[in-house]
Amino acid sequence: MGWPINLGSNPQMTRYLYGEAGLPIQKAKHTKNMNTGALITKGVLGLEMWDNQRDTMQAYRETGMTEKQFNDVLIDSGLIDKAGKVAENNDELKVNQKKLATLLDLYSKETRELGHTMWAAFNALTHWSTHLPDANKGGRDEKKRLDKSIAVRDLVQSDAWLNHAGMIAA
Fold this sequence. Notes:
By secondary structure, this protein is mainly α. It has a domain at 55-170. Helix content is 58%, strand content 0%. Helix 3 packs across helix 6 and helix 4 crosses helix 5. The longest helix is centred in the middle third of the chain and has 18 residues, at 97-114.
């Protein structure tokens, strides 16, 4: 396709999209400083990771997990920890109820499309670790994101998770 572009029967759309000369309109975007080489590298690494983990991901898709089982794995793995000093003397607060409720809510949303599976649980965990509530309030808290990503990595390597997946002997 050569320049200038002509959208044929709709010259108004051509002018709207490409300007009077039919050339692309350059607009400043938040992506103007994007490093496309880095994006391609990340894309390749991501595809390699998926390809290398194909059997694991398939096991997550095929292995059922109820909300109660997800709840138990979260606690047994240590991801849901004590909720501060108040929890030391109160058995009902032995786990961080806010974090637990957040993760169970995310799991519930994922199950609508993915069913009650480990895949839904994994998606809930990765959503929690990468979508921070303060992401659009003056920048991202990368330390918090890193800590959450490490916590998810540790959970999926925990005996509680691997036992449920049948990846190690119970």
